[in-house]
């Protein structure tokens, strides 16, 4: 492919100020936050649907591969490419907040935190809240089918998308879905775009369901345990007591020590910590949860007294991945998710693998969903250690599939998990489902220009 010619032609088509080849800019788009790297040849920063449509028409007719960039917080290599990057982060308009039909109509580049700040003024919120909400975009969160901290109560992004405006590979613009409480007209193509990782079309706008901000009190509890299993058992008992927390997060000593260092805080440290949001609807929820924590040997239990204290606890958890990255050479970020009743077995398994392979594995994540993320520490310059880390990941994935879990609860497949996706589909769903997915991809993108070589693409590689 002659990229020099493409740059010239795209500048004529879109304007000089939208097409970039400067080394410094290419650098910025060469790495996702999981450490996967590819160097793009050119970057287009679109500011409207028409820009996107023109670019896709051009790429289609010249068969040039293209990858959409939201904020680049992907942890699986889904967002890196050695071809064209289409950056939508300038498309940040909130077009409508509808407080009767309960939806927000937004452009794809809106950052989730920005959306929630605006919705707050109307007394509403968008519940799915990836820990990267302060960075990640609506388009990226939909394309990744993202989860988050509140998803234990509210479900993931898939449960909150009513409709999407999509630019197809051909450049045609379509809308899938309707901003309606009910709509049964046709196949649910809107949901097909959720979790499509930029392989089926470019999401340029979305109609997202929103919810009124709750009026009752939410109490944030911080609990410290000396044993991972005790924390795991507390999670199960909260559920069997029919309490649905608004947030139920787990983290360990390694993560908390890194976070305390990054924030200059001194939160009490144990082997395992739970951060729990309890909604005080009847007044009985908080005492019941406290009782469960005590019964499971929580050594310290604190209920945040002020909004500032509650916010600080949340920030410590939300930025833990970044804190850990600042104290390690490299980590492999795992995202397996197990049935919630197997959470204690899962925690035991991770500790067993840590001992077996002689590696530090730190755990933090959405324990209430069965989706705690193991972070496997390794030295990239030590090939033997890299091998051990990879083997630990293989064992973890196999364990998750065996117990009826999934290889990815929320981070998606990208280039990291292609082999594992096939394994899960083979074990749980039948390989015919993969063939069907590949036929759907072909129908949307006959020339395979949208984020090729990833996800369900058969010609895959797994190099970082
Ligand atoms: C600190 C940190 C915490 C995180 N916490 C969570 C968490 O709690 N839950 C969770 O689910 N994930 C989490 N993630 C992963 C990541 O943030 C989410 O997957 C996020 O939704 C990606 O959004 P983004 O805008 O950065 O997308 P990008 O990384 O830019 O892109 C991700 C994928 O979506 C595609 N894409 C982006 N925009 C569009 C579009 N408009 N149309 C079509 N395709 C598009 C890209 O091509 C790529 O395949 C975390 C990441 C970090 C770094």
UniProtKB/TrEMBL annotation:
Lineage of producing organism: Archaea, Nitrososphaerota, Candidatus Caldarchaeales, Candidatus Caldarchaeaceae, Candidatus Caldarchaeum
Cofactor(s), names only, from the UniProt record: FAD
Pfam family, one: FAD-oxidase_C
Gene source species: Caldiarchaeum subterraneum
Protein's UniProt name: FAD-binding protein
Cross-referenced InterPro entries: FAD-bd_oxidored_4_C, FAD-bd_PCMH, FAD-bd_PCMH-like_sf, FAD-bd_PCMH_sub2, FAD-linked_Oxase-like_C, FAD-linked_OxidoTrans_Type4, Oxid_FAD_bind_N, Vanillyl_alc_oxidase_C-sub2
SUPFAM superfamilies cross-referenced by the UniProt entry: FAD-binding/transporter-associated domain-like, FAD-linked oxidases, C-terminal domain
Domain FAD-binding PCMH-type residue range list: 36-213
PROSITE patterns assigned: FAD_PCMH (PS51387)
Signal peptide: none
């Amino acid at each position: 492919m002659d990229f020099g010619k493409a740059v010239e032609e795209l500048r004529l088509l879109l304007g000089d100020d939208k097409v970039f080849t400067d080394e410094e800019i290419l650098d910025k788009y060469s790495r996702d936050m999981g450490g996967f790297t590819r160097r793009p040849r050119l970057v287009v920063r679109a500011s409207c649907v028409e820009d996107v449509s023109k670019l896709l028409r051009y790429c289609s007719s010249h068969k040039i591969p293209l990858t959409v960039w939201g904020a680049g917080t992907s942890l699986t290599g889904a967002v890196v490419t050695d071809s064209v990057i289409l950056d939508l982060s300038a498309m940040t308009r909130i077009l409508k907040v509808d407080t009767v039909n309960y939806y927000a109509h937004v452009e794809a580049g809106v950052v989730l935190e920005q959306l929630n700040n605006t919705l707050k003024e109307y007394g509403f919120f968008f519940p799915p809240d990836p820990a990267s909400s302060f960075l990640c975009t609506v388009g990226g969160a939909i394309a990744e089918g993202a989860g988050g901290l509140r998803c234990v109560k509210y479900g993931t992004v898939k449960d909150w998308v009513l409709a999407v405006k999509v630019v197809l590979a051909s450049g045609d613009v379509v809308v899938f879905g309707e901003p309606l409480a009910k709509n049964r007209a046709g196949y649910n193509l809107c949901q097909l775009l959720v979790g499509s990782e930029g392989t089926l079309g470019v999401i340029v706008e979305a109609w997202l369901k929103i919810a009124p901000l709750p009026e009752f009190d939410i109490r944030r509890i911080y609990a410290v345990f000396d044993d991972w299993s005790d924390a795991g058992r507390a999670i199960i008992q909260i559920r069997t007591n029919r309490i649905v927390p608004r947030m139920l997060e787990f983290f360990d000593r390694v993560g908390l020590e890194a976070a305390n260092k990054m924030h200059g805080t001194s939160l009490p440290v144990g082997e395992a910590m739970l951060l729990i949001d309890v909604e005080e609807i009847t007044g009985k929820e908080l005492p019941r949860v406290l009782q469960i924590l005590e019964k499971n040997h929580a050594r310290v239990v604190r209920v945040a007294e002020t909004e500032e204290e509650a916010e600080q606890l949340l920030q410590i958890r939300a930025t833990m991945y970044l804190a850990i990255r600042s104290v390690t050479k490299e980590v492999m970020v795992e995202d397996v998710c197990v049935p919630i009743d197997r959470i204690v077995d899962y925690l035991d398994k991770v500790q067993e693998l840590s001992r077996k392979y002689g590696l530090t594995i730190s755990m933090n994540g959405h324990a209430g969903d069965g989706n705690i993320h193991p972070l496997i520490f390794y030295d990239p310059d030590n090939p033997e250690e890299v091998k051990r880390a990879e083997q630990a990941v293989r064992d973890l994935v196999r364990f998750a599939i065996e117990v009826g879990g999934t290889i990815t609860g929320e981070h998606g497949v990208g280039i990291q998990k292609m082999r594992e996706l096939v394994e899960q589909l083979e074990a749980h769903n039948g390989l015919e489902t993969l063939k069907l997915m590949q036929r759907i991809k072909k129908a949307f993108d006959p020339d395979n220009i949208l984020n090729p070589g990833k996800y369900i693409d058969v010609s895959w590689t797994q190099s970082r």
